[in-house]
Amino acid sequence: MNIIGCVLILKDDFNNILVLKKKVKRGQKEIWSLLNSPLKGKKDCEKTLSKAANKSLKTVLFELKEFKEFSINEEEAVKVYTGVLRERYVLEKSYDDANWINKNNLEKYEFGELDNRILNEYFK
Questions:
Q1: CA geometry: angle at 37 spanning 40 and 62, to 5°?
Q2: To the nearest 10°, the Cα dihedral for 6, 59, 28, 101?
Q3: Residue 30: what are its φ and ψ, rounded to 5°?
Q4: Hey, which residues does 100 pair with through a beta bridge?
Q5: What is the pLDDT of residues 23-54, one digit of tens each?
Q6: Is 2-122 CATH 3.90.79.10?
Q7: What is Dmax (Cα atoms) for the chain?
Q8: Following DSSP, what letter does each residue of 72-120 receive, concatenated?
Q9: pLDDT band per the 50, 70, 90 thresholds, residue 109
Q10: In the predicted model, what is the mean pLDDT of residues 98-103?
């Protein structure tokens, strides 16, 4: 299966997960998501996600570990990793908001189909 992207589940010391909301144009639906990045060229997911966290959150990742692969269709999949944030983050301007959530308040947020599958599997 061809890996086309990487997704990062960012957690804190209390097993809460950081979810992000991108800025949208008027009339578009606001959807929360996990930090993700397309895989370009021959780069590996670890480097790609470290750069994405540095760019989007202006912070450093700790304890990056592979979690699971999730298929998008018959030929393509994304690799999911977990990582820990130990310092404050600063959102880049393309993001509107970020929240720490846990299993109990997962239903209050609207996610895309893939992020929903990933979070449900993670909180099992």
A1: 110
A2: 90
A3: -85, 120
A4: 18
A5: 888 888 889 999 999 988 777 888 999 999 99
A6: yes
A7: 39
A8: SSSSEEEEEEEEE--S-----TTEEEEEEE-GGGGGGS-B-HHHHHHHH
A9: very high
A10: 94
